[in-house]
């Protein structure tokens, strides 16, 4: 009788673990779906709000009217250690772009301060999360430009704007 009780108890324990794993897998699957939707929304927002001026399709550095988003991401990741700080900084800048808070001094010198836009803060947060977590499209000339202009650890060459 005692063995029979242990057998039933063991069977119930195994079944509960299996159900728990199914539940855990279902939660993981839902989170992945949510992240894919958020990622898709982040890309849509980037294309809608940013690529108008920060186009990854520009054919030369002389053609652009604002720095590429890949350059912005690179610069902000140099200054902010983790995703939360990065996201907060991008959101703060997009909600209130003022020269005193600019990280990209060369871009300010060349293009001036980004005009203030009427962005939704939650959308900017989604956009910034997308930027942090994903590779961004780069113009074809971008890698060569980075190498030429920022070869000394991210600092501009002497005498260059």
H and E string = HHHHHH
Strand proportion:
under 5%
Q: Main β-sheet, in a few words?
A: none
Helix content range: 55-70%
The CA-CA distance between the termini, in Å, is 87 Å
Shape: elongated
Quantity of strands, as a count: 0
Mean pLDDT: 81
Radius of gyration: 24 Å
Which residues sit in consecutive blocks of at least 5 with pLDDT less than 50? 28-37, 156-161
Compute the number of structural domains.
Answer: 1
How many separate helices? 6
SS class: mainly alpha
Précis, in short:
This protein is mainly α and 161 residues long.
Layout of SSEs?
Blueprint: H1 2-50, H2 69-79, H3 83-95, H4 105-111, H5 121-133, H6 142-149
Report on the architecture of this protein.
The protein is mostly helical and 161 residues long. The protein has one domain. Helices cover 63% and strands 0% of the residues. The protein contains six helices and no strands. It has helices at residues 2-50, 69-79, 83-95, 105-111, 121-133, 142-149. The longest helix is centred in the first third of the chain and has 49 residues, at 2-50. The termini are far apart. Mean pLDDT is 81; it is low at 28-37 and 156-161.
Characteristics:
6 helices; mainly alpha; single chain
